[in-house]
Amino acid sequence: MQRRDMLRRLSSGAALACPFVLSAEAHSAVQEKQPAPRGLPRLKITDIKTIMTAPNRIRLVVVKVMTSEPGLYGLGCATFTQRALAVQTAIDQYLRPFLIGRDPDEIEDIWQSSYVSSYWRNGPVLFNAMSGVDMALWDIKGKRANMPVYQLLGGKCRFAADLYFHASGRDFQEVEENVRKAIGMGYRYVRAQVSVPGLATYGSRRSDRAAPGSPSLDDTVGPTSPTDIWEPAAYVRIVPRLFEHLRSKIGEEVELLHDVHERISPSQAIQLCKDLEKYRLYFIEDPLPPEENDHFRLLRQQSSIPIAMGELFNTQQEYVPLIADRLIDFVRMHISQIGGLSVARKVAAMCEFFGVKTAWHGPGDVSPVGHAAGLALELASYNFGVHEGYVFPAETREVFPGCPEVKNGYLYANEAAGLGVDVDEKLAAKFPFPPGRTFDHSWGTTRSRNGTVIRP
Ligand code: MG
Q1: N or C: where does the chain have the smaller number of CB atoms within 10 Å of the terminal CB?
Q2: Window from 104-113, 179-188, 415-424, 435-444 with minimum mean pLDDT
């Protein structure tokens, strides 16, 4: 048999049925034509499911992508806690049938094709659904490579990520005590929020005195019977006094942060930023709502305070102009809300070229899988700023073995392959979504005294 004929028969599969044994010469000829045994066997996505669990009563959505390799699966965070069931439907009814049979190694193409698969695209529901799949595919790729995901993103720039601690209080003294507590635990970054007497407040418990004439919080809410009342003027008066207190009592060493949470007008935001300059904040967060993006240029011109923005951002049209025009100092997006790790790594790379750092949104309604994905990117991003601190409660750590560890104000990856976090599905099922209101019921119900709803 001619060597060429033999190779053709082998490549066509005919040789499989051929009852002869290859000579040593023929065998070496075949070997020459075979690709070197590098790489890994091709896989297929065999199934995708959503895991809905609420340890610590926070509704979390985690996506599990299963593959044709027995036991190999990936996990991703798809938590949009306020609309979790809508995300579950987007995954189970639409992404799952679209992606079963696809090669899980093709992360970028799966993202791009999923993005246009609904024709009308993006939005928090669809992007969170896509994020769950996207992070799970990075988890699978890391497990296949036997490397933590931060290695796939370029390797470590630092040994761990700095965390910031949340300190709040009903008065300056209580905030000060909590800042001192954080410093005592090793934190070097602390976010400080204080209650406004008699009014609702973002980031701190309502102080005990109700606004004159206000009904209780459980009464009917609406513009004609406002209950959860918040007023911007009282807020912008008290915040500079809080930071004056903290700097005078605690000193300069600790980095202090503050979250406006978008509730004030552009002119109030500019004045507040100017008033806070002398207290040297690490950043002021979300001084304007996304609807007022065009005001950042004015704010930038009038204040040197570092600005962090945009946990509500969803599409690139919202954040790219602020980065490219150097109008902010930190990006604050919620990684699952912008479509997952594949998008976030592009944002981080772009930010580096424009002098913007990352401070991804990371409260309790980001699952441990989502925190691990953010941490992987932070370890590999030169322009990392700070990680939002959230100490996972014991039951959350039991449901999600491998949670990143907090030590001395740093968040450490656990060094396992992939994202390093697993889920105990049997235990997860013991924490079903609680009935009633979602994670924070003040969205859409907080109003000014005259009944106007506050954003958000
Ligand atoms: Mg915030």
Answers
A1: N
A2: 435-444
Contact (CB, 8 A) for 260 and 238:
no
* Whole-number Å distance between alpha carbons of 137 and 96: 13
Q: What is the pTM (predicted TM-score) of this model?
A: 0.89
CA-to-CA dists, residue 414 to 381, 404, 418, 452, angstroms: 18, 6, 10, 47
H or E, element range at 228: strand 228-229
213 within some domain: yes
Residue 40 domain flag: no
Determine the distance separating the centroid of ligand 1 and the alpha carbon of 204, expressed in angstroms: 13
Q: Determine the distance separating the centroid of ligand 1 and the alpha carbon of 1, expressed in angstroms.
A: 73
pLDDT in tens, 34-70: 555 567 899 999 999 999 999 989 999 999 999 999 9
Residues 6+ apart with CB under 8 A from 229: 199, 200, 211, 214, 446, 447, 448, 449
> How many angstroms is it from 335 CA to the middle of ligand 1?
13
Residue 108 lies in a domain: no
With respect to residue 123, please indicate whether it lies within any of the assigned structural domains: no
* Number of separate domains in the chain: 1
For residue 391, the domain's CATH number is 3.20.20.120
Question: Between 291 and 33, whose confidence is greater?
Answer: 291
Residues 6+ apart with CB under 8 A from 341: 131, 134, 135, 138, 149, 335, 373, 376, 377
SS3 125: helix
- Catalytic residue positions, numbered: 202, 261
Ligand 1 mean position, distance from CA 310 (Å): 8
Token code pair at residue 308: 């962090």
Predicted confidence (pLDDT) per residue in 159-184, tens digit: 999 999 999 999 999 999 999 999 99
Cα end-to-end distance, the chain, whole Å: 78
Domain of 157? 152-417
| pLDDT beyond 70 at 2 | no
Average pLDDT, the chain: 90
Task: Please name the amino acid found at residue 127.
Answer: F
